[in-house]
Design a protein that fits this description.
five-stranded mixed sheet, alpha/beta, Rossmann fold, 14 helices, Arc Repressor Mutant, subunit A, 3 domains, 348 residues
Length: 348
């Protein structure tokens, strides 16, 4: 098992995922020996990129392998559509095993890569995941191998703050130097008897606490693999050049995993936006603007006229009732006509 990972940063537009991924790509591209995949590829061109991305490390023996880092600030560029064959390739490559294929494009081409390694860091929005992933994709191999990291809270930054400029410039240099050192590491990772007991106890305890969302059923079966990989990363981050995982490394890795998993259900909430839900949001905003101007409850015919151009007539009554029950609207009175006061969300 190797510490390569598939990680997606999931957030609405403007939260900052592209900035984080852009900095990560800049750091990786400072290391000439690292191969970074093009942003847009087919499954065949990804394999061609992997085929030329050969590295050699002199350990006890000379070891050669093919390694590619996929960095994409927009998953839509890397995976513009859900292609079952492409997903199958990504699933196969995750395990860092032999990859072999024969293609026919006017002539038969044979591709064989004995030792593969691919990592992925991509950014996407909940809405793109909603349209990109078909029904049943969460039960398949690619998503169960992917760690999702969610944030919906944009950070406010001071555009002209120079107070820590020297610190961050030096940090950038230090990280690049660390990456160059890490590039030369090649050694089997060991576990202390204490850390072996900790992870075995965790597995026998059902990997608790485990996500309970039904879409994560198959993801849960791979949490042990995620923990092993993250424990390797925690060991390396601690600077242990002997590559011996301690219980403290496992604890750090578990904190990372649980922090990410705690917010995954929020991704699903953000993904479930139906056409009627969007229309209700638009109607609510419309009534807010009318109410701001008049400072009075808005007569029902304003709402009906807004909805009649966007919904079948038979759905209008149910939508209004839903908006009232969802506390988007407060019904004021029914005679001579119903009026509604829009309720402002907490963030306004």
């Amino acid at each position: 098992m190797y510490p390569n990972m598939y990680i997606m940063l999931v957030a609405p537009p403007g939260v900052g995922k592209s900035a984080i991924i852009g900095h990560s790509e800049n750091l990786l591209r400072k290391i000439p020996e690292l191969y970074v995949s093009p942003s847009s590829v087919t499954s065949a061109s990804l394999i061609d990129t992997l085929a030329i991305a050969q590295r050699a490390i002199m350990g006890p023996v000379l070891t050669t392998f093919n390694s590619v880092q996929v960095i994409s600030s927009e998953l839509q560029n890397f995976l513009p559509e859900y292609n079952a064959a492409f997903m199958g390739v990504m699933t196969k490559l995750y395990d860092c095993e032999l990859y072999e294929e024969r293609r026919r494009t006017g002539k038969v081409q044979h591709v064989r890569i004995d030792n593969t390694q691919i990592s992925m860091l991509a950014g996407t929005t909940p809405s793109y995941l909603n349209t990109f992933l078909p029904e049943g994709a969460w039960d398949q191999g690619f998503m169960s191998r992917t760690i999702l990291v969610f944030c919906d809270d944009p950070s406010n930054v001071d555009l002209f703050d120079e107070s820590n400029r020297e610190f961050y410039d030096q940090l950038y240099v230090d990280i690049v130097n660390d990456l160059r050192v890490i590039m030369g590491y090649y050694k089997a990772v060991a576990w202390t008897p204490e850390s072996q007991k900790v992870i075995v106890d965790w597995i026998e305890g059902g990997c608790s606490p485990a996500p309970t969302h039904n879409r994560l059923k198959h993801y849960n079966t791979r949490r042990t693999a995620h923990m092993v990989k993250l424990s390797m990363v925690a060991c390396l981050a601690r600077g242990d050049t002997q590559f011996v995982i301690t219980p403290e490394d496992f604890a750090v890795a578990l904190d990372w995993l649980l922090e990410a998993e705690a917010l995954i259900p929020d991704i699903f909430k953000s993904m479930i936006v139906t056409g009627e839900a969007r229309i209700m949001q638009d109607a609510h905003y419309y009534l807010l603007t009318v109410h701001e101007k008049t400072k009075k409850p808005v007569p029902e015919h304003y709402l009906v006229n807004f909805l009649k151009d966007r919904l079948p007539p038979q759905h209008i009554k149910n939508v209004i009732e839903t908006m009232v029950k969802a506390r988007m609207l407060k019904q004021e009175f029914n005679s001579p006509t119903a009026c509604y006061t829009p309720i402002k969300p907490d963030h306004l």
